[in-house]
Write a structure and sequence with these properties.
This protein is an alpha/beta fold and about 425 residues long. Among the domains are: about 70 residues; about 220 residues, Alpha-Beta Complex (Spore Coat Polysaccharide Biosynthesis Protein SpsA, Chain A). It is built from 13 helices and 12 strands. The strands form 3 sheets. A 7-stranded mixed β-sheet has the order 3-2-1-4-9-6-10, sandwiched between helices. Strands 5-12-11 form a 3-stranded mixed β-sheet. A two-stranded antiparallel sheet has the order 7-8. Strand 2, helix 6 and strand 3 form a beta-alpha-beta unit. The longest helix has about 55 residues. It is globular. The protein binds 2-acetamido-2-deoxy-beta-D-glucopyranose (2 copies). The site of one 2-acetamido-2-deoxy-beta-D-glucopyranose has 3 residues, from loops.
Length: about 425
């Protein structure tokens, strides 16, 4: 069945492509025929067939007429070329839409086979449990103003969201420049103080100011790094309720490619970059602890993974994602805990007596595509092969000299300056 469906999708895709190609061809042919039949365009060509023709208007030398004709053909040709370019652009957009549709069809198919009437497990090796939860029904009444804004700024119901106050302008400025270099349109700054509006306007990026909310806004305006970090879990809720997938980004991140174009899997509630720095720490490993006093049973196995980085993650608008936000906000409002620790504890700790764990599906992003600055400065810049790969983003999370290192990253990856990263130490000194 999977093969049959894949075949059908393939045929649909081919059909779509061949239809578009035919449309382009017909358009060009039609343009050429028009150029020959109606050298003067559609509107004044009618005059030659109307009965009350003014004979004097036909006066004109042959050479003049043919140069007119050449001009007209040139004009038509330009028109056709332009149409052609537009069609090509539409084909590109359609291809991306087809890819997205395929991704969600595949996810929907899995959902149906899990949620549907199939109760028997089926043969060995064919069983797949559900990881792509259904999305919530969008509720515009939650925030009509934000709904309008997102309708305008988002693409395919996806949006990058960045929280910022005036303390972070230097890094935000570098981020915005990187976003523009790779032509990302669905990017939104949530301003936490009043100075952000004019800053965003002069930088030409979409801006959203939240409705006044005393407790939250006090933190936003005066809060330090960690306090502001905790805010995002409250702010993001409405985005999900409105039915949008959110890619939350800290400000100390550079975009070197558009993450929405082929770099997200969109199959989990939470898809996050990692603080890990190699295969083990990023993707998880079996860490064996040793207690010699236990003799025969001295080795105990533990599961370890470096934390998900709560400065860059993608949330699908599902109930588990919203529950995650609520749980993290709730815990943070009752303690001084670090938001990234809470975020990970909610995601990974199982249910236990007196506690019900969150059941969210999770995926860790590729560590070389979504690269933290430890990976970049300790490994990648010293590795001849890894150096050649361009990441999708670089997050300067491991280093305090953010502006200088961000500038180095831009020089290295965007301006081809091969020694731009050499002068920095691996860690902070
Ligand atoms: C024909 O053209 C002449 C000169 O331009 C004009 O005076 C005359 O009114 C026109 N006749 C008609 C029927 O359009
Ligand atoms: C990490 O894992 C990938 C994929 O399994 C593998 O190709 C690569 O060699 C591994 N890297 C190291 C350093 O072990």
């Amino acid at each position: 069945m999977a093969i049959a469906m894949a075949g059908r999708r393939e045929r649909t895709k081919q059909l779509l492509r061949s239809r578009i190609a035919t449309a382009i061809l017909v358009g060009i042919l039609f343009g050429c025929i028009c150029a020959v039949l109606f050298p003067n365009g559609f509107y004044n060509s009618g005059s030659s067939s109307t009965p009350n023709t003014n004979s004097t208007s036909k006066v004109g030398s042959a050479s003049c007429e043919s140069s007119e004709r050449v001009k007209m053909m040139k004009y038509n040709f330009a028109l056709i070329s332009e149409t052609n370019a537009q069609l090509k652009k539409q084909v590109r957009e359609l291809t991306e839409k087809v890819r997205l549709a395929e991704q969600s069809t595949e996810n929907a198919r899995k959902q149906v086979s899990v949620l549907g009437t199939e109760i028997k497990a089926g043969p060995f090796g064919t069983v797949k449990s559900l990881r792509t939860n259904p999305t919530v029904v969008p509720d515009e009444s939650v925030n009509p103003r934000l709904a309008k804004l997102l309708e305008r700024v988002s693409i395919n119901k996806e949006i990058i969201v960045v929280l910022a106050n005036s303390n972070v302008k230097p890094t935000l400025e570098l981020q915005i420049a990187s976003v523009k270099r790779v032509n990302i349109q669905n990017y939104l700054v949530v301003g936490l103080d009043d100075s952000m509006e004019s800053f965003c306007e002069s930088n030409g990026v979409a801006y959203y100011k939240r409705d006044p909310d005393k407790t939250v806004d006090k933190v936003g305006e005066t809060g330090g790094n960690h306090a502001v970090s905790g805010l995002k879990f409250r702010v993001l809720r409405e985005f999900l309720q409105l039915g949008y997938s959110v890619l939350l980004s800290d400000v100390d991140i550079l975009f070197l490619q558009n993450p929405f174009l082929g770099h997200l899997y969109r199959d989990s509630d939470v898809e996050s970059m990692s603080d890990g720095h190699d295969n083990q720490t990023t993707y998880g490993f079996n860490d064996v602890s040793d207690d010699p006093t236990m003799g025969w049973a001295r080795y105990a196995h533990t599961m370890r993974i470096w934390v998900f980085n709560s400065g860059f993650f993608y949330l699908r608008p599902t109930l588990p994602s919203i529950e995650l936000l609520d749980r993290v906000s709730d815990t943070l409002s009752n303690s001084e805990a670090w938001d990234q620790a809470v975020f990970n504890e909610e995601l990974f700790f199982p249910s236990r007596p007196g506690y019900i764990g969150l059941h969210a599906s999770k995926r860790v992003m590729d560590m070389y595509e979504f690269m933290n600055s430890k990976v970049l400065f300790k490994t990648v810049r010293k590795d001849q092969e890894l150096k050649k790969l361009k990441p999708v983003i670089v997050h300067l999370n491991y280093h305090p000299d953010k502006v200088e290192r961000m500038q180095g990253v831009v020089e290295f990856y965007e301006n081809g300056k091969v020694d731009a990263l050499d002068s920095f130490p691996d860690g902070s000194e």
